[in-house]
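Narrative summary of target 7.
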Amino acid sequence: MPLVIAMDGPSGSGKSSASKGVARALGLRYLDTGAMYRAVTWWMLRNGVPVEDAAAVAARAQDPVLESGTDPDGPTITVDGADVSGPIRTREVTNAVSAVSAVPAVRARLVELQREIIGAGGIVVEGRDIGTVVAPDAPVKVYLTASDEVRARRRAKDLAADPGASVTVTLDEQARRDRLDSTRRASPLAVAAGAHEIDSTELTLDEVIEAVVRLAKEQE
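Modeled conformation, tokenized:
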């Protein structure tokens, strides 16, 4: 099949930066599926849907209108025509997204959208179930991870504008999210069959990008 690079892994592993870098290096499109789940979560919170109530979330899963841009130099995400690339990165959304993304109706809808965007290929797709569910036949599958502390430091840095996002707090919130993402019934976070595992704890971003680019070129 045309080149599809599936990049899975937990929060803070460096998926977004690495995926965009790989897409730029290879002239591919880029899709952040996590942003799609965050966008739906943001919409649920904004519209007063109790995110811990799976039935309530499922009942509104078809309502938000999502558009995902695929330019690695400027990926976009809109909900009902509004740019939400900033609001979806708040701690409120981060701490609610695991509950929303565990709802089968949400996953079914977004997986369908993701497969439409992937289309004929030529894309780097990052998320938690790309190699296992969304694109299990992707020629290149990567599972990117890092130590818990390193991941927490990266997330806390991303949330630097939030005074409550210390490394300690972020580590606790991250552990909760990891547990929820790994144990949910619908498409749990897991290493896909045939995936190349890369631990980015001691690697620079450039080294991670180079490793994935090498894997991609081996498929040519």
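Residues 167-183 form the longest helix (17 residues).
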